[in-house]
Amino acid sequence: MQAFDYYNPTRIVFGAGRLPEVAHLIPSGSRVLLASGGGSAERNGTLPAIRRALAGFHVTEFSGIEANPDADTLLRAASLCREQSLNFILAVGGGSVADGCKFIAAAACHDGDAWQLVSAQEPLARALPLGVVLTLPATGSESNDGAVISRRASGDKLDFSSPLLFPRFALLDPATTLSLPARQTANGVVDTFVHVLEQYLTYPAGAPVQDRFAEGLLLTLIETGPALLAKPDDLALRGTMMWCATLGLNRLIGVGVPHDWAAHMIGHAVTARLGIDHGRTLGALYPAVLAVQRGGKHDKLLQYGERVWGITGGSADERVGAAIAATGRFFAELGAPAHLADDGMQAADIAPVIAKLAEHGLTRLGERGDLDEARIRRVLEIAL
Ligand code: NZQ
Ligand code: ZN
Q1: Which segments constitute the Alcohol dehydrogenase iron-type/glycerol dehydrogenase GldA domain (predicted)?
Q2: Of 118, 127, 297, 335, which is least surrounded by CB within 10 A?
Q3: CA 208 to each of CA 193, 205, 303: distance values in angstroms, whole numbers, following the listed order
């Protein structure tokens, strides 16, 4: 196991019916930016409940944060924070709203071009405190230090992170997720599954605790995902999914082990160009990454196949192939498309996607840095 620091200061408040408690989680006297997305939180009653709970606070609302949040939209919210001296940000929504609020929190305290915090990875000196009321379990953003920000004007989608961006709290009320359409529920399962694999399915690192935690999450997702699609009103399943998603990327299972993240980096570039849902890019790209990287991932693929899918028969090569195939079948069972072409990508999009990755220095991907431009092209060709 590699040396590591583990730090996660986010308070987790889990349970149905707990939205009113948000009033006790925000420091009294705060001037709050209440930020949300395109209307789902209004329609499912989450935002009205939060508004009632915040009756004792000064609240300024900002809605319309889009899926794959756009820096230009978020900069308008950051200006509001400055103009009105707002000093706490409450995100109500999915990963896009949570991520967007992290950028707002940083930009509101930054003199100069805030996009540089993302594009040039300028270190953050200060950020406003934020909390998250999560309505879509998927990204783990509610209790991690990262955010993925898009800028449509330049065709970019890039991540940035800072310990200052850990939310102060994540309010996880599974009832807020009952309104999710099947497609977003499935996106969340695929995204979480891939988060776990990006931190687990690399090469053996003498980290049995992390491995068993990861395998436990994967097995839980395999049980919960299809059950949830069959019974979307099941609050217990919704709760299990919510906790899985948080644990998948709160950095715990990723300590002391190598990470991959190739499918994520390629997926972000695909979404930046074509607007395809994050989860759906991964459903097609992750099995393709496994196909191209199966040599380097051989030992871990065998372990994953046996412990997660019960694959014990056949030669080592056959078992590796069976583990990759099982992963693809699971995503298909959830309704994720196996091919990016199903969501509108064309062969002509491959070169510009690779060019974007190259522009940002993202062409030595994977746990060994050996997924170069030629291999990225093969991944995209398989996923197409
Ligand atoms: O905009 P609204 O109206 O709220 O609708 C959203 C949106 O259309 C809807 N939705 C959310 N909660 C709902 C709901 N609809 C009905 N009922 C509810 N309870 O779902 C749609 C998608 O929402 P979004 O927030 O975009 O989805 P997700 O949570 O999957 O977030 C995706 C973003 O997170 C980034 C992705 O790249 C993408 O930009 N990621 C962030 C990470 C992080 N910060 O650690 C890691 C991830 O790997 C990921 O890259
Ligand atoms: Zn993801």
Answers
A1: 9-174
A2: 335
A3: 19, 8, 11
Residues in the chain: 384
Q: ipTM of this complex > 0.95?
A: yes
Ligand approaching nearest to the C-alpha of 148: 1
**Cβ(138) to ligand 1 under 6 A?**
yes
Contacts of 344 (CB under 8 A, 6+ apart): 274, 276
DSSP-assigned beta bridge partners for residue 168: none
Domains of the chain: 11-177 (3.40.50.1970), 182-383 (1.20.1090.10)
Arithmetic mean of pLDDT over the chain:
98
Kindly write down the DSSP assignment for every residue of 20-42, as one continuous string. Answer: GGHHHHSPTT-EEEEEE-SSHHH
Angle (nearest 5°) at CA 189 between 201 and 346: 80
Measured distance CA(92)–CA(232) in Å, rounded:
21
Instruction: Dump pLDDT digits (tens) for 240-269.
Output: 999 999 999 999 999 999 999 999 999 999
The answer, yes or no, to whether any atom of ligand 1 lies below 6 A from the CB of 148, is yes
